[in-house]
Design a protein that fits this description.
disordered N terminus
């Protein structure tokens, strides 16, 4: 008997920001966008892997983008928000945040995968196979070790 687990990338990070085609070409007046990201270490790793120029500060991470900047800060709920400086093109900001969220998701998925594989044996499972799907999700097949029931 085997168990298949699927690790699926998270949905788009930027929520609550819908724009028309005209607005995408307009300049931002300074806004804060919510994300679904929560961990600084994963965000920093995602920024590093993407090749972003950033500075980690005491209360956030400042990223330099197209002559402007985005500052990532945590809100009261512990979620990371993106504070966008004035004068940046909304299209550039949304494209950047989408790419960073994809990187963040990959890093998070990799961490979950490693933790799952390392803990599977102690819970009575034997790793049989893995398959990476087109959408970058991973299908793991684990078998229950005999005598673990």
């Amino acid at each position: 008997m085997g168990v298949s687990l699927v690790l699926i990338p998270l949905a788009l990070a930027v929520t609550g920001a819908v724009a028309t085609r005209e607005e995408l070409g307009s300049q931002v007046r300074g806004i804060t966008l919510k994300t679904r990201m929560k961990r600084w270490d994963l965000l920093e790793r995602a920024l590093r892997e993407y090749g972003s120029q950033y500075v980690a500060e005491e209360k956030g991470i400042r990223v330099f983008l197209d002559g402007g900047e985005i500052k990532f800060v945590k809100n009261r709920e512990g979620e990371i928000e993106a504070q966008v400086s004035k004068g940046q093109l909304l299209r550039s900001v949304t494209s950047f945040l989408e790419v960073i969220h994809e990187e963040y998701t990959k890093v998070l998925q990799e961490e979950v995968y490693k933790k799952l594989v390392s803990r599977a044996e102690q819970y009575g499972f034997v790793f049989e196979s893995e398959e990476v799907q087109e959408d970058h999700s991973i299908v793991l097949t684990l078998a229950i070790r005999e005598g673990s029931r």
